[in-house]
């Protein structure tokens, strides 16, 4: 799938110019340390809706930006 | 078409405020390329060093327009001179666009690809 | 009779009941096969399959239909070989033509490391019950003369494996064979009904909430494909699944016969010929997670380039159609089947880009799990708790892209 990302420095560019990056999240509501680690390493929110992501503008400014994106579109 | 050649540029890392004070090829808020070393820069921690890492060539306005029409899918800034960067012919390109000519730069290892795609 | 002409079937479609012994969410191949085996093997027919769209509208009707068992770890070889065997007898069992074709599959390597991996694959495959042999570039050329063994000067073929049981089948016929078979035994298949959430009381699942009201059930199986995370999160279950789009395309008719399936694990590209003569191709998933069914030009460009380097005749063909499915990708590239920690709630997921071939075996095994309450040995290694037990089933190089 293809879409555009607005880079705050370079402007609007096709997604192919960017690398996708993960956002690590820690689920503080999980009580046990082992369970929390398991969740952090493997379990994913995988939102069907708005996701907060990091993207690296490899073809432009070579900086990471934070993007909120609707994964259904 | 001509062959891209190595460009000697000056690479500057400095605070955004310091970089705002002159006209550079502004590759990131705190990073710029220049054709010549600035006489002074308003940041005591600025890094200024020569950069041989790019290859490129000047195209006249007509050549540039023709090339970009088929090789660039994003919009160029309207003012002149202007700096822009992004994928051009599938390469990570940096453009310095003047009224009657345009410099296109790519990381030097892509020089051959640029030559091929200009043709 | 012409195999392209489908037999007319008369089936009774009922309104959903308010309660079932088993509710299966998702009318893809996995949900339907489980229903089919529940009914035919275990006599469990008070079963509903709830599909929000039409059956086969998910990945089961979008895939490139490659069936093979040449996986890289013992547990996977055994499991997929079971599926290969079930596929081979599916036509005679169901009485439905699924256009199953054994074609043989060439799996190419382009480096020394790749050659080592293929030699290892052949060993593991033979040791655990499937047929795979290592082949050198000359043998590759003999098996498939259309391959440019120099890889266009970019990716020379250094060797590979040949897997004679590699086959294809018509995907929507598979979906319908299982659906029809299940319905004839009394299973309710409901199309156009969306499950919003799972109903849980204490540690037990009690049913589902749908856009047509609640339905209670003793057992709920999630077979929702790429949408699994959203569904099971309503019961508080967290999964190591990320949903990525996978694209494929077909060309116009190729005038010659291309009788084999060709795949390159390095180039992440594979091709086969459809029964209509089109060349069918696919490659890797889109990098970013997404539930969007939109296709991209970028994918076509990159996949077509790699394809033409290896199979130069493709240059003269035209791309006719391109489409996308959304895949439930697991971190170790192996499926996740079975219990979830919530009583009565089962999942079948992590089918990613490789789950069409698994439909019969997974359906058979999950039906057995539902009927007996005990996880069958064949799928025990693929349960969700393997991540907590530090027993991941890493097999990325075999899951490949199909
Ligand atoms: C382009 C492409 C090529 C592929 N090629 C191959 C291949 O060559 N070989 C191979 O083995 N595998 C291949 N695969 C993978 C294979 O298609 C899938 O793994 C397999 O079809 C998964 O089947 P499923 O029943 O789990 O999911 P699906 O077929 O996706 O079915 C899930 C169903 O659940 C429904 N659903 C979802 N949420 C809800 C809800 N809340 N309520 C009700 N219904 C719901 C959906 O509408 C859908 O019909 C490919 C996939 C794609 C996309
Ligand atoms: Zn940028």
Our Rg estimate of chain B from Cα atoms comes to 14 Å
Q: Give the low-pLDDT segments of chain B.
A: none
Gap from first CA to last CA of chain A: 10 Å
Query: Would you tell me the overall average pLDDT of chain A?
Result: 92
List bound small molecules: flavin-adenine dinucleotide, zinc ion
Per the principal axes of the C-alpha atoms, what is the gross shape of chain A?
A: elongated
Number of domains of chain B: 1
List the secondary-structure elements of chain B in sequence, H or E.
Answer: EHEEEHEEEH
Indicate the proportion of strand residues of chain B.
35-45%
Cα(first) to Cα(last) distance of chain B is: 6 Å
Number of strands of chain A: 5
What does this structure look like?
The complex is a heterotrimer of chains A (73), B (119) and C (402). Chain A has 73 residues and is mainly beta. Chain A is elongated. In chain A, strand 4 (50-57) and strand 5 (64-70) form a beta hairpin. In chain A, the strands form 2 sheets. Chain A has a 3-stranded antiparallel β-sheet, with no helix packed on it. Chain A has a two-stranded antiparallel ribbon with strand order 1-2. Chain A is built from 1 helix and 5 strands, in the order βββαββ. Chain A has one domain (4-25, 35-70): Folate-binding fold (2-Layer Sandwich), CATH 3.30.2270.10. The model of chain A has no long low-confidence stretch (mean pLDDT 92). By secondary structure, chain B is of the alpha+beta class. Chain B has one domain (5-118): Gyrase A, domain 2 (2-Layer Sandwich), CATH 3.30.1360. Chain B is 20% helix and 44% strand. Chain B contains 3 helices and 7 strands, in the order E-H-E-E-E-H-E-E-E-H. Chain B has a 7-stranded antiparallel β-sheet. Chain C is of the alpha+beta class. Chain C has 2 domains: 19-63 and 171-241 and 331-398, FAD/NAD(P)-binding domain (3-Layer(bba) Sandwich), CATH 3.50.50.60; 101-166 and 242-328, D-Amino Acid Oxidase, Chain A, domain 2 (2-Layer Sandwich). In chain C, 27% of the residues lie in helices and 26% in strands. Chain C has helices at residues 29-42, 74-88, 90-94, 112-127, 137-143, 171-184, 228-233, 297-310, 359-372, 396-399, and strands at residues 19-25, 47-51, 66-67, 101-102, 105-109, 133-135, 159-163, 167-168, 188-191, 195-201, 204-210, 213-222, 242-253, 261-264, 269-273, 278-283, 319-329, 336-339, 345-349. In chain C, the strands form 3 sheets. In chain C, strands 1, 2, 9, 10, 11, 12, 18 and 19 form an 8-stranded mixed β-sheet that branches. Chain C has an 8-stranded mixed β-sheet with strand order 6-7-5-14-15-16-13-17, with helices on both faces. A 3-stranded antiparallel β-sheet of chain C has the order 3-8-4, with no helix packed on it. In chain C, helix 1 runs parallel beside helix 6, helix 1 (29-42) packs across helix 9 and helix 2 packs across helix 9. The longest helix of chain C is centred in the N-terminal third of the chain and has 16 residues, at 112-127. The chains are: A mainly beta (73), B alpha+beta (119), C alpha+beta (402). Bound molecules: flavin-adenine dinucleotide and zinc ion. Residues 7, 9-10, 57, 60-61 of chain A line the site of zinc ion.
């Amino acid at each position: 799938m293809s879409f555009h990302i607005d880079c705050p420095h370079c402007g609007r560019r096709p997604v192919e110019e960017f690398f996708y990056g993960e956002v690590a999240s820690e689920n503080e509501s999980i009580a046990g340390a082992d369970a929390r680690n398991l969740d952090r390493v493997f379990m994913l929110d995988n939102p069907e809706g708005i996701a907060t992501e990091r993207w690296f503008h490899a073809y432009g400014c070579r900086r990471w930006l934070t993007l909120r994106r609707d994964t259904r579109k | 078409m001509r062959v891209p050649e190595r460009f000697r540029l000056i690479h500057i890392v400095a605070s955004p405020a310091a970089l705002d004070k002159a006209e550079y090829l502004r590759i990131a808020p705190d990073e710029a390329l220049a054709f010549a070393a600035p006489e002074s820069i308003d940041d005591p921690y600025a890094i200024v060093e020569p950069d041989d890492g790019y290859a490129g060539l000047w195209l006249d306005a007509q050549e540039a327009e023709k090339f970009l029409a088929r090789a660039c899918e994003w919009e160029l800034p309207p003012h002149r001179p202007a700096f822009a960067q992004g994928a051009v012919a599938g390469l990570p390109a940096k453009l310095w666009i003047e009224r009657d000519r345009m410099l296109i730069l790519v990381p030097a290892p892509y020089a051959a690809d640029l030559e091929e795609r200009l043709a | 009779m012409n195999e392209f002409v489908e037999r007319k079937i008369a089936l009774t479609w009922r309104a959903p009941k308010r309660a079932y012994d088993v509710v299966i969410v998702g009318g893809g191949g996995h949900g339907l096969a489980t229903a089919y085996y529940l009914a035919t093997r275990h006599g469990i027919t008070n079963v509903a399959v709830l599909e929000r769209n039409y059956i086969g509208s998910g990945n089961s009707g979008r895939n490139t239909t490659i069936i093979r068992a040449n996986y890289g770890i013992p547990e996977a070889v055994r499991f997929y070989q079971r599926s290969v065997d079930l596929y081979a007898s599916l036509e005679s069992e169901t009485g439905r033509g699924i256009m199953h074709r054994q074609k043989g599959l060439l799996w190419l390597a382009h480096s020394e490391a790749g050659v080592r991996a293929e030699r290892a694959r052949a060993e593991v495959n033979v040791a655990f019950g499937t047929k795979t042999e290592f082949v050198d570039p000359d043998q590759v050329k003999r098996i498939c003369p259309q391959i440019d063994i120099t890889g266009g000067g970019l990716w020379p073929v250094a060797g590979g494996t040949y897997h004679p049981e590699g086959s294809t089948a018509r995907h929507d016929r598979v979906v319908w064979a299982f659906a029809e078979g299940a319905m004839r035994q009394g299973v309710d298949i409901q199309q156009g009904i969306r499950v919003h959430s799972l109903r849980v009381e204490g540690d037990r699942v009690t049913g589902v909430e749908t856009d047509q009201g609640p339905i209670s059930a003793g057992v709920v199986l999630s077979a929702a494909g790429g949408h699994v995370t959203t569904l099971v999160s309503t019961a508080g279950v967290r999964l190591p699944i990320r949903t990525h789009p996978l694209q494929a395309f077909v060309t116009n008719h190729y005038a010659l016969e291309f009788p084999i399936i060709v795949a390159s694990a390095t180039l992440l590209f594979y091709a086969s010929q459809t029964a209509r003569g089109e060349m069918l191709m696919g490659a890797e998933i889109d990098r970013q997670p997404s539930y969007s069914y939109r296709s991209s030009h970028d994918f076509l460009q990159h996949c077509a380039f790699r394809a033409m380097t290896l199979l130069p005749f493709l240059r003269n063909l035209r791309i006719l159609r391109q489409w996308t499915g959304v895949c439930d990708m697991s971190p170790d590239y192996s499926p996740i089947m079975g219990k979830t920690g919530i009583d009565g709630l089962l999942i079948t997921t992590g089918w990613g880009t490789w789950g069409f071939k698994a439909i019969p075996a997974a359906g058979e095994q999950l039906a057995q799990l539902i009927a007996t309450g005990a996880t069958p040995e064949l799928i025990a290694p693929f349960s969700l708790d393997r991540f907590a037990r530090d027993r991941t089933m890493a097999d990325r190089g075999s899951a490949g892209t199909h």
